[in-house]
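Budget justification aside, the reviewers requested a transparent look at the raw inputs and outputs of the sequence design task funded under Objective 1. We therefore reproduce one unedited record. The lines immediately below are the structure tokens for a 261-residue chain.
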């Protein structure tokens, strides 16, 4: 018998989600392992294994006196993160559509998650040009994307050190910045200019320019980028339309409560 490992992984994910949904449906009243197993028609050993995995990840906890299981607030933080991203997307969508029409290129909205860029919105331009990573839900490195460089401006010097140690600076093309010194220099330029470029650093033949979206605290919570082929995304064209992009960033930031000093 041949076992499809991918199908097995998918089935395991479904079981874990069913357990989470069951615990949530109990109004967070702690549940016995036996009750969870009976309600979901799973064996005790299977439910125990998944509950232990969820507990190790911080999503489930156990009462000390009764050994009953309940969801922690970590699931709420995940939900709040998703809700915040959806809120930003709703605000950004009309702005992104205008930018796509203005530039005749594709426009992306991205946020940070676990030291990576996550694309949460895409408006494709007439030419349908996107990086391979620029699809909703996809992750991309921060050090070689315009949106990622902007999000890295939130990092302190110590946090940037931690980022480099944990994620590294992998070389994706001959233009990728692969040293901390080069990245720091780039981030200083991004801070000064108010926009960030990906000059074929993530993918040869594609170029991006990005601006930040700040919330009411001044933190960069998202970034909007315009992507196109290098033959069209020339310096003259980008600088000629930079104010259009900057205005879009200011508009989205204002809708998030940001007021420049």
């Amino acid at each position: 018998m041949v076992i499809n490992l991918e199908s097995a992984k998918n089935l395991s994910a479904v079981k874990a989600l069913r357990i989470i949904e069951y615990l949530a449906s109990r109004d967070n009243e702690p549940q016995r392992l036996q009750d969870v197993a009976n309600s979901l028609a799973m064996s005790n050993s299977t439910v125990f294994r998944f509950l232990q995995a969820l507990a190790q990840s911080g999503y489930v906890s156990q009462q000390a006196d009764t050994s009953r299981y309940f969801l922690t607030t970590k699931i709420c933080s995940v939900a709040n993160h998703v809700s915040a991203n959806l809120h930003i997307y709703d605000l950004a969508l009309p702005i992104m559509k205008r930018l796509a029409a203005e530039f005749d290129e594709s426009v992306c909205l991205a946020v940070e998650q676990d030291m990576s860029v996550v694309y949460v919105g895409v408006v494709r331009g007439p030419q349908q040009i996107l990086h391979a990573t620029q699809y909703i839900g996809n992750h991309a490195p921060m050090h070689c994307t315009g949106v990622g460089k902007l999000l890295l401006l939130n990092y302190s010097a110590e946090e940037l050190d931690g980022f480099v140690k944990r994620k590294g600076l992998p070389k994706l093309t001959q233009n990728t910045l692969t040293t901390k010194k080069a990245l720091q220099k780039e981030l200083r330029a991004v801070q000064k200019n108010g926009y960030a470029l990906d000059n074929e650093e993530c993918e040869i033949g594609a170029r991006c320019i990005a601006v930040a979206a700040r919330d009411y605290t001044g933190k960069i919570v998202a970034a909007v980028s315009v992507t196109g082929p290098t033959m069209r995304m020339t310096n003259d064209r980008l600088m000629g339309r930079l104010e259009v992009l900057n205005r879009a960033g200011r508009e989205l930031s204002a809708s998030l409560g940001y007021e420049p000093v």
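The beta strands are 60-62, 69-71, 106-113, 116-123, 139-140, 196-199, 206-214, 220-229. The chain is about 50% helix and 20% strand. Computational costs for records of this kind are itemized in the attached budget.
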